[in-house]
Each structure stands twice: as structure tokens, then as C-alpha cells.
Amino acid sequence: MAGAGDTVSVRFKLYALTVMTINAAGYILLLRYTRTVDGPMYFSTTTVVMTEVFKLLSSICMLFSMHRSLSATVTDIYRNVFCNPMDSFKMCIPSIIYMVQNNLAFVALSNLDAGTYQVTYQLKIISTALFSVILLRKQISVIQWISLVTLFAGVACVQLQPDSFTKKVEHVNYTVGLISILSACLCSGFAGVYFEKVLKGSDTSLWIRNIQMYLFGIVSGLIGVYTKDFFGVIEKGFFYGYTPYVWAIVVAGSVGGLYTSVVVKYTDNIIKGFSTTISIILSTLMSVYLFGKEITVLFSLGAGLVILAIFLYGMPARKPPPSASDSKASGKLAQTV
Ligand code: C5P
Fold it and tell me: What is the reported pLDDT for 29?
């Protein structure tokens, strides 16, 4: 991965976006599988904590690879994380929200089929745009709003498979599942945009910001274990039910989180939404090529809507003239896509 502060090529951005998206697809499948398979059931709150631990260790390694010196790494962490508690504290907010979001994903996927989950979760495109307007004062024209709704409709169609909603999920509480996933969309929009605001509002490096956030993430994750699974963990142990698939969830969750942070640093949350969508289309097309899957009418319609959304988003607004940040965003979108 690129170090913080340096500019990166379009190819690197595409690489990070692709890894993030393919990894997310694998993560959902693994999570769904482990929550529905027979056998001892692990405590989902403990995997959230372990994911934060993995991300923290990886971020320290990335910082070390930037400094190429152990003492410089330790000094950087000491100065920016421990000697600057008020600045570190800013990362407490997104870490708590992400902790809630990551736990909600387990509740949602235990109560919904993967198709409903994936389609509904794309509403985060809209919540991200809303929070970008509120927190970053981003100007989004009417046409761009139409483009974002079109993008949501497009990606929803692309992800709809003929058998998406027919697979039965046992012990479901559909309402709980839907409320969880809608709340996760709000969390995703808010935490993503807040993280972007803090990251881009100072010179503090990405890896220091991540270390600050993951330290709080471990603490808030442990509070989650205490409030939800305390007695179970005391009785059966923290790692009860950890199969290789559960460890794979921890690794996939960590890779996804780290790549998300890189993508937000070098692009922005709205571009992340667009690019994720394109990667979803490309990965579906690849599975047509690799596994002989058929292209459905819905897929073609969805892909068409996504392309239309990209054109609409890049279209300059006539009145008022586009602000500097808008033209920059459109330029970035065109460059990234
Ligand atoms: O679905 P969404 O894109 O909002 O998910 C973002 C994921 O990336 C969350 O699981 C969050 O914990 C993770 N993340 C991270 N480090 C960041 C920003 C997000 O691990 N700096």
C-alpha cells in the first residue's frame, strides 16, 4: 500500500478500489455462511474486536515501513497518539459508530438473505451523500442527486439474481434484519464522511489516524463483548467456535477496513461509492467469463443505469455555476473511473 502523504497513480486507486470491493463480496459470503452453518456458534462481538486488533497491528507495520526505523515509529506513535489525547479523541466518534455498524452487519446477515442485505446496504450511497453535504458542506446539484439515486437503482438491479430472495433463512426476524441494515447505512455514511473530514483536515498521517481509531475500536469492541456476550465468553472462552472460516472473517474484515481507509484518503466517499459499483459490475462480468454465469436482463438494465449515473454526476450544473470542490470531484471521478 502507498504511504500517507504521497500522491498515487490512477492505477493504484483502481487497484485499492478493486481489492476493497472483491474483499467485501467474500466477507459477506463468509459471514453469512458462518452464521447459518450447524455447530458451535462463535461470539460475533469477539470477531469485531479481533478485526480491530489485526487492523491496529497492520497499521503499525505500515507506519514502520514508512519510517524504516523502529525508534522513529515508536516516537511518531507516542507523540501523535499518546501526547495528543484531544486530537486522538476525535477518532473515538467514528470508531464507536463503526463498531456499532460492524456488529449490525452480523445481526442483519443472521436475519436476512444475502441478496436483500446487499441491495439494501447500497442505500449507504445516499446516506454518504447526505452526510457529505452536512459535514463537508459539499455542493451536490439536483442532477447529481438524481445520479446518486440512479446509481443506487443500478447497483440494486445488478445485484439482484433470479434466486437472490428465494433462499430460505431460518430463525429470521425480517424486521430486525431490515432495521439493522438501514441503521448500518446511516452509520456507514456518517462514520465514512467524519473520518474523511478529520483525515483531510490536518497533516496527521493516515496510519496515525488509523492507529488512533483502532485503539478506540478495541476498547469499544470490548465494551460490546461485555454488554452482549459477557456470560457466554466467561463460560465458553473468547475464541469459542473459532473455525478457520471465522479467522477468515477477521482477516477479510481487516483487509476491507484498511483498503477502505486508503480509498477514502486518495479519493473521497462519494467516488468510493461510484467505484465500488463499477467493481461490482466488473466482478459479475468476470464470473460470467470464468464460471459461465448468464447475463440477466436485470444485470444489463442495472449496468446501463450505473453508466447513466456516472454521466449525470459528471455533468456540470448550469445554475449556480459549479463550485471549485464540485469541479474537483467531477474531475477526480472522471480520472478515477
Ligand atoms: O460499508 P462501509 O464502506 O461503510 O464499511 C467501512 C468499513 O471499513 C467498516 O468496517 C470500518 O470498520 C472500516 N474502516 C476501517 N478504517 C477506516 C475506515 C473504515 O477499518 N479508516
Answer: 79
- Pick the atom of ligand 1 nearest to 192's CA: 4
Q: Is residue 110 part of a domain?
A: yes
Residue 225 CA: distances (Å) to CA of 99, 108, 140, 309: 11, 18, 40, 41
User: For position 134, what pLDDT does the model report?
Assistant: 96
CA-based nearest residue to 181, from 110, 251, 277: 110
DSSP string computed for 18-81: HHHHHHHHHHHHHHHHHHHSSSPPPPHHHHHHHHHHHHHHHHHHHHHHHH--HHHHHHHHIIII
Among residues 218, 212, 196, the alpha carbon closest in space to that of 83 is found at 212
CA of 29 to the centre of ligand 1 (A): 17
pLDDT at 322: 53
106 vs 44: CA distance, rounded Å: 7
Instruction: Please indicate, yes or no, if residue 288 is contained in any of the structural domains.
Output: yes
Cell of 141: 446539484
How many residues in the chain? 337
**Index of the ligand 1 atom closest to the CA of residue 257:** 20
Q: How far apart are CA 143 and CA 141, in angstroms?
A: 5
Q: Which domain holds residue 322?
A: 10-336
Number of structural domains in the chain: 1
In a domain, 1, yes or no: no
Specify whether the CB–CB gap between 272 and 129 falls below 8 A.
Answer: no
- Kindly list the distances between the CA atom of residue 172 and the CA atoms of 119, 123, 168, 218, 312, in Å, as whole numbers in the listed order: 18, 22, 9, 29, 39
Residues in the chain with pLDDT values less than 70: 1-6, 161-171, 283, 287, 291, 316-337
How many Å lie between the centroid of ligand 1 and the Cα of residue 130? 18
111 located within any domain = yes
The CA distance from 84 to 91, in Å, is: 12
Residue 297 Cα, ligand 1 centroid: separation in angstroms? 32
Residue type, 91: M
Ligand 1 shell residues, CB under 6 Å = 55, 98, 102, 188, 192, 195, 210, 213, 256-257, 260-261
Which of 252, 335, 265 lies closest to 3, judged by CA? 265
